[in-house]
Amino acid sequence: MIEERYALLQTLAKEAGQLALNHLQALKENRFPIEVKGPQDFVTKADRDVETFIRTKLKEAFPEDGLLGEEHGLEAGSNGFTWVIDPIDGTANYIRSIDQWAISIGLVSADRMEAGVIYDPMRDDLYRAATAQGAFLNDSPLAKAKTEAPTDPILILGRSKRKPFDSYLKTLSFLESKGIEYRRFGSAAMGLALVATGQVDGYFEADLNPWDCMAGLLIIKEMGGVIAAGEQAFESLQNQPICAVHPYMRDEMTALLAMIAEIE
Length: 264
Hints:
- The chain is α+β, with helices and mostly antiparallel strands and 264 residues long.
- The protein has eight helices and 15 strands.
- It has two domains: 2-141, Fructose-1,6-Bisphosphatase, Chain A, domain 1; 154-263, D-Maltodextrin-Binding Protein, domain 2 (3-Layer(aba) Sandwich).
- α5 (188-197) runs parallel beside α6 (210-222).
- The relative contact order is 0.14.
């Protein structure tokens, strides 16, 4: 049951990525309008077309499964499975031809993640995982999470305008006090993928949509990383603070989460 869905997930993510690439040229030629849905929230015809493509293919293959997507919302299923879809995570980057964007699709059953993929069309890289089956980059298993801290840890930091700016400033101050560098790339899915490969040491965002992170959290969990915050989203399918790190950063991130909770 899961294997069939997992196989389709991988194929579908790549097909969706090709569709997004095809739309990118039209966007560069100003043939697609760009709409602003809210703070930090852009949408293009590409976002809607890619999500419609994904939803159509999933509905054809598994008509009883539920669907939750960034652009078209929730369509409840009848069998306990729900697909969580971000057609283009990092739309602000996408519309500027910055190569930090991805397709992210997760599969939830009851209160746990079953499978997830992040596809980076610009590099043709597919990050994938299924519960208890390990995590992979294309056909190669991802290395297990690191246990020894580097001298210069790097955290990818998301910024949500749904949270007070003071909270963000205090996060920066906390990281500085702990000697932790930080980066902002504009795509949570790509940030989580970099944690999974060990290129960075963690990801934190105080408020994140489930479609941005479901696949990435499972991939990190399957390679041995620590989900310090965010697993509640597997059940609630609601926004959560998200923190996923290599094991040596658990204590610092626990302290950061406690500090943020006190501010809010």
